[in-house]
Amino acid sequence: MRVEFSRSGSTSAVASFLESLPASSSSNGLSFEEELAGVIRDSLVKAGLPPDRFKVALAPAASPEGGARQILVSLPAAHAEEAPRAAAAETPSGGEAADPVTVLKEALEKAGLDPERFSFTELREPVWWPGGTYINHQILFEAGGAHEYYDVALMLRNPEVTVTEIRRLLALNG
Q1: How large is the angle between the packed helices 100-110 and 159-172, nearest 10 degrees?
Q2: How far apart (Å, rounded) are the C-alpha atoms in residues 125 and 97?
Q3: CA 117 – CA 122 distance, rounded (Å)
Q4: Within 10 A of 130 (CB to CB), how many other CB atoms are there?
Q5: DSSP 8-state class, residue 112
Q6: Residues 88/152, Cβ–Cβ less than 8 Å
Q7: Which of 2, 61, 132, 156 has the fewest CB atoms nearer than 10 Å to its CB?
Q8: Per-residue pLDDT tens for 119-173?
Q9: Whole-model pTM above 0.70?
Q10: CA 103 from chain center: how many Å?
């Protein structure tokens, strides 16, 4: 095996080290790419995604220099929307679904700020990209001329951090 990290044709110290390693200790006869695809597959299953909900495949790279390959992971578009919905539906200790604006207002009140002085708008925007889709779920916070977007999933995780960011925004804008 020859590993090159530059086009000069000479191998670097890292490449020399990698070349000195013994060949794969895999006794199942799989290539590195196949083993990596298997690890990705296993990690998705461990993360709770049923095996029939995704596909992991090997394919030639766009510019296959030296036999380069890529590993493709495809998820159905329906699943891309499930994760944001699950994050948005995180439940507080009461067991009912949390309204993100209410959670933020309560955190502001707890921190000594009057939430009635500010404007809050909850936004859900579908985002399309070559890998699929997801829902960008945010809260637009407005206080006079100052405004900022905050991610709902992160805010629900720790509203106090968002309150700290709001205080910073207010301090910067007087």
Answers
A1: 70
A2: 20
A3: 17
A4: 4
A5: T
A6: yes
A7: 2
A8: 999 999 998 988 888 889 999 999 988 999 999 999 999 999 999 999 999 999 8
A9: no
A10: 23
Helix (H) or strand (E) holding 71: strand 69-74
Q: What is the DSSP letter of 130?
A: T
Q: How confident is the model at residue 43 (pLDDT cuts 50, 70, 90)?
A: confident
Distance CA 62, CA 72 (A): 12
How far is Cα 108 from Cα 106, in angstroms, rounded to an integer?
Answer: 5
3-state SS class at 139: strand
Q: Which two tokens stand for residue 42?
A: 């296993």
Residue type, 35: E
Rounded to 5 degrees, φ, ψ at 127 are: -120, 125
Exposure on the CB side of residue 47, measured as CA atoms within 13 A: 11
